UniProtKB/TrEMBL annotation:
GO terms for molecular function: ATP binding; ATP hydrolysis activity. This is Stage 0 sporulation protein A homolog. Keywords: Phosphoprotein. One of its GO terms (cellular component) is cytoplasmic side of plasma membrane. May play the central regulatory role in sporulation. It may be an element of the effector pathway responsible for the activation of sporulation genes in response to nutritional stress. Spo0A may act in concert with spo0H (a sigma factor) to control the expression of some genes that are critical to the sporulation process. One of its GO terms (biological process) is phosphorelay signal transduction system. The keyword Cell division does not apply. The gene is degU_1. Signal peptide: none annotated. The lineage of its organism: Bacteria, Bacillati, Bacillota, Clostridia, Eubacteriales.
Amino acid sequence: MNKIKVLIADDVEETRNVIKKLLSLEEEHIEVVGESDNGEEVLKLIQNAKPDIVLMDINMPVLNGLEATERITMEYPSVMVIIMSVQAENEYLKKAMFHGAKEYIIKPFNYDTLIGTIIATYEKYKEIQVKFKGANIDEVRNSKVIAFFSSKGGVGKSVLSLNTAILLSKSENKKILLIDMDFQFGDISMMVNQHSKKTILDAIEDGQIDSYENIKPYLFKYKDNFDILFAPEKPEASEYITKEIVEKIMKALKNQYDVIIVDTGINFNDSTLYVLDMAEKIFMISTMEIVALKNTKLGLKVMESLGYEKNKVKLVINRFNPNYGISKKEVEDAFEDGIVTFIPEDEKPVIISINKGMPLCEDKKYYKLKIGKAIEEMSKKLIS
Ligand SMILES: Nc1ncnc2c1ncn2[C@@H]1O[C@H](COP(=O)(O)OP(=O)(O)O)[C@@H](O)[C@H]1O
Ligand SMILES: [Mg+2]
């Protein structure tokens, strides 16, 4: 049997400790997945801790137990709230039940009452939980993370990730997020003509990265179903952005989008590896230059040694031009079967679109060119 996951919300530390002690006697069946002293934090914790049951005190600072209960039942209908209250709070109790609490328990309670109530509530509402699974936090959205990576700069990683994101947001009724994780030289904001907007660094400095709600104001809404998280504007900022921070941000944003496209930095540091690990697909971008191809080969070897499945990594040769002394066939032969996609070189439209801050695939005139079609083909491979 799965353990029942319980989150404890009470502003009195002593009370939380007593509850934890009681629950620890049932550790085979019950697991405490988090605790908090205020209702606002409980809502944030739920996203990551995914409790089955919240033990909720009524009087708490910031957001009280009643309001928190109401929001939990609205936002996370599968989470069961059990109100803990003292006798004198009868009136509140009624309100709490009205706001969607499943059960209540009167303080002070003993071991039998606490455990009995948790198990009985869980059993009773488990069925409903199954029914509501579609609305459960696990299930709300399971973001498909797609990473664009290269072992050399200037190969077109940003151009391709941005245009892919745009095409996906157009063709599919899906919620897309593009994260510019080239923390040193992130160019996406320029490419969409949105310089000096809020960046990931602002969110980090303001301490607003623990939940989607927190990060939301730092996202740029490119259009209704397409958000972008820009990279910092000063290269030195990249030093502060540790893997732990990246992990927090990814966890907070995951499940809020159908597809998250990440334009990564160009070395295998901890943050990049974290994203590559969690990615469902990695697009490794290279050009036709022999040096780029050599580095790409090395990069692919690293990924192989990391145990990535073969079909997780796709190679994209950008700026393909038959006049550069290496043929398509030679490139294909140098890499494994079926992993290569070619994007033709076409400087004029690319440079104009960058300079105008108007992505290529946004512009009907260019979108019809070979380069636009090739990017479209590539983005289709993502959804299939
Ligand atoms: N298919 C292409 N054809 C011609 N030029 C391209 C193409 N893709 C990218 N470029 C050029 O390469 C430059 C670098 O692209 P960018 O996406 O910024 O690279 P990266 O993110 O890998 O550093 C761009 O400024 C653009 O002018
Ligand atoms: Mg770039």
